Amino acid sequence: MSGHTIWFGSFTSLAMPISPCMRLPDFHTACRMATKAANKEMVVPATGEKIALHAYWDRLLGSYSTPEGAIQDALISDDTKLPDPDPTLAMNANPGDWFTESEKLAEANVYAEPVKSGTQPYMLDRQYETNARNIARRQAALAGARLANLINEALK
Questions:
Q1: Residue from 26, 54, 27, 22 nearest 38 by CA
Q2: pLDDT tens, position by position, 27-82
Q3: CA gap 33, 122 in Å, rounded
Q4: Mean pLDDT along residues 109-121
Q5: Of the candidates 45, 53, 70, the residue with the CA atom closest to the CA atom of residue 124
Q6: Which domain holds residue 34?
Q7: To 10 degrees, what angle do helices 126-154 and 95-105 make?
């Protein structure tokens, strides 16, 4: 990982219903430091703009002005509907495990080629961007399932 600080902010917030930076005091400092480092890593996605790696991953699921737009894309439209979450992972209610899963995903995917060994700004290729989008969609589906499971358990 040649000199990169591992960042896992988006993975964590997508895989966890509530960010561990807000929920788990033990992780607060690590999250803050990792996010700060990812804001220094610059990438150039297919759009041609130069943005922070952190910002790139944070906006993968889009930016909606209304909840209805997000719901349409995530749950209704066949073209953009989120995948079904892994049922075994969805049943895991341990935030420490979620944090570890997110960190591993970040290590393997956020800092994959061309970020792993390129020079800044990193020119993101089609493979990187497709993989990033698929991961973000899987993590969003997993976060929704975990949140639903936590709410259902709390209401029993």
A1: 54
A2: 445 555 555 555 788 999 999 999 999 889 888 887 776 778 777 777 777 777 88
A3: 21
A4: 90
A5: 45
A6: 9-74+84-154
A7: 180
What's the whole-model pTM score?
0.74
Give the angle subtended at the CA of 140 by the CAs of 69 and 154, to the nearest 5°. Answer: 105
For residue 156, the number of C-alpha atoms closer than 13 Å in the C-beta half-sphere is 6
- 69 domain residue, yes or no: yes
**Encoded tokens for 66:** 């209304």
Q: What is the mean pLDDT of the chain?
A: 78
Q: Report the distance separating Cα 45 and Cα 127, nearest Å.
A: 11
The number of beta carbons lying within 10 Å of the beta carbon of residue 140 is 20
Residue pointed to by tokens 């698929």: 134
Number of domains in the chain: 1
List residues bridging with 44 in a β-sheet: 123
Q: Is 61 within the bounds of a domain? A: yes
Q: How far apart are CA 6 and CA 35, in angstroms?
A: 9
Q: Is the confidence at residue 155, as pLDDT, over 70?
A: yes
Residue 137: both structure tokens together: 């969609």
In a domain, 113, yes or no: yes
